Every structure is written in C-alpha cells, then in structure tokens.
Amino acid sequence: MAGRQRQKMTDIELNKDYLSSLPSEIIENILVKLPIKEAARTSVLSSKWKSLWASIPNLVFAEKCLPESELIESVDKVLRVHQGPVLKFELDSDQLANRKAINRWLLVLSKNGLKDLRLMFYVYNGCTVPSSLFSCHELQHLEISGCTINAPRCFRGLKLLRKLTLRACYLERITIEKFVSGCPLLESLTLICVNNHDSLVIRSPNLKQLILDERFSDLLLETPNLISAIIFAYSLPHGFQDFSPANDGCKGKILRAIGALSSIEELDINSEFCEYLGSGPIPEKLPETFHHLKKISIRLDGSSKVVDTALCILRNVPNLKTLRLKLPCQNIWEEQRIATFSFLEQLEVVEILDVEDVGSLLAFAKFILGTAPKLEKLIMYDEDLYELDDGVGFQMKLASLPMLSSKAVILFGEVPDIDFPSAFDFLWNI
Predict the structure, then answer these.
(1) Per the domain annotation, does 38 fall within a domain?
(2) What is the per-residue pLDDT across 91-117, written as a single tens digit (0 to 9) for each?
C-alpha cells in the first residue's frame, strides 16, 4: 500500500510543470537577462512564459553578423507582438544601414516609455540615425556608435537624459555644445571620435563624469560639479589654436579647460592635452586649487610645454593620494623647488608606467622617496624594465635611496588591467 502511494506521488511530481509554477517576477528576471532570440524560444515552455516573453521591458538584439534583412524582420516581429512598455532597447549590428527601418523602430519605441537606448553600428556602413531619435523624450541613457546622427532643425533637447555616450559618430545640424546644453540633467558624458571640433564647448552644470578622446583646436569646460575626467586630446591638422574668442580668449588655455574644475576628484590626461594646455600662458598658481583631487594620471613626454603644464597642475593639488605618471626621458626633478609641491604632503601611492630611461626613473624615485612623508607604495609597471638595466644593480640603487616615510615600499609589477567605470586606464578601440 505504501509503495503504491509513493509511486502515485512520484507520478504527480513528474507531471508537475515547475517552470509554469515559478512566480512571474522570477520568470521576468530570467527573460530580461537573455538575448532576445533566446528569450523568444522560451515561449514554447508554457503559455505563461509566452505571455511574459511578449511583455519583457528590455529588448536586446546582439546580432552583429546577422544579415540586414533577417535582422529587420526579427526586430519588426518582436515589436509587432510586444505588449507593454519597452524600457531598454539595444541593437548591435555590423550589417544594418537601413534608415527607414531605424526610423520606424524609434517612432514605436518613443511611444512606449523608452528610457535606455543603445545603438551600435559598423562605422563604415554609412548608417544614419534619423531625427526621430529625439522624439524619445523619456530617455535617461543614450549610447550610439558608428553612424551619423541627424538632429532635427528645431532641437529641443532630451530633458531627462542622464548618461550620453557617442563613439565614432558625426552630428548633423547640431554641435556638441547645443546637444549637451539641451540635456540639463546630464551626469555622464563620453565622446570618442565625434566630428572634428575647432572649438569644443561643454557647458553642463550637473555633469559628474567626463571621458573625452577627441580632436579639437580649442576647449572650454564649464562643468563645476565634475568629479571624474579622462581627457585625451589630439590636435587638428592646423594644430591647437592660441585662443578662440567664442571661448573667452582672454583667459589662458589651462584656465579655460580645467581651471574651474573645483570638484574634480580623479583626473587622467595625456601628453597632447598637456601640450594644448601649455600652448597658452602657464601661471605659477591657478586661481582655483584642486582641493578634492585625490587621484591623477599624467602621461609626460620630453616637451618642455608638457612638463611645465604637468608641474603647474601638481603645484595646485594639496590633497593628492595617488599619482600615476609616464615619465619623460630627461631628469626634471632635481631642479624643482620642493616647497612649491604641496601634493607631496598627503601622497600615499605613486605608480610609474612605460619606463624609457633608468636615469630619469632613479631621479624621480629619489625625489619622491625623499620628500613624501606619508608615502606607502612606489609601484613600477613595465615589462621591459629589466632590459633597460642589469636588473639586480637597478634594484640595489633603488634600495639605497633615502626614504622619508617609514611605511614606504618599492614594488614591481605588470601593467595593471583596465579598471572601469573608474576614470583611470580607460581604453576603447573602434
């Protein structure tokens, strides 16, 4: 008798539809984490899964190599059967260039509460995102790469946008200045290879994170609440301008570009940007001291303008905790007046990248170890370090240097991995 009851219970357990019995919230959480093709296949599991698949708020089409006609058919089909709001729409394709299809999708999405839009195209396909993009008034996150963006003639902005990322894009009928100014809540801005700018102007009172990898002749930043910034600059063929009247040419470049970043906490700049800053007057003291700046990364080359600019910045950073440098080949440290470097007082970690000359490295190590009272780590990252010297002798020379801090240690290591979304070590390849 007992055996018969156990068999009956086993039959019931085997026939039970556990997938359909899952709470709707759990099913939805599973579906939103799947690519759209895989999510659609779950509709065969049960009627409950089918109804929930047709109403998931996140639609992700990660079909880079799918032929254009198949991709258009797939997106059209999903949007046609979808029920309820679409909060996120992501499309990643190397094949798509059909402007009419993109326009059709954007018009549908603009009526469905879209908050997060990501469109990634292959830059050489000549894809254009039509002006219907700007009818998505509820957007909070916008990321576009590899295309032309056709702005409407009467641009009214995206009033709720908080994060904007543009890579390898060309803007028609609109400047970056106008685009950003039309997004009053913007907190994060990434611009990588967007147009070529004679004068790049960014006015954004709420901006907190900025990544610039751009060609320009002149730069004005009015971003008083900026906390984290990566600025990699590259000059146009005619070089950096001495001044631009539209950008308040009466000020030096260093004042226009970074002089007002009173809230900055992390800053990463390349040697070309230092060259740009140094192409105008370089003051001994900036009107604004970077009291909140705790971490800075500077890539130095042998140019006197680059070096002078870097030293000017370091003289105005009294609370720096972490310094990362690519050193120039020449020794620039013995002649520096230590009293002018307030950043040494709080410095805890120094990291050295891309060592090219052992002599300049030893001179810098001597300078830092002998003048930073709270130093904890001097870290050297370079795979070719031992090829520049006999290795053992180099370490002995370092060990013999006097150290002002009793906590200081010297470490060697490989170049660290990218750490993002921190402002440091950001690298993006088109």
Answers:
(1) yes
(2) 999 888 899 999 999 999 999 999 999
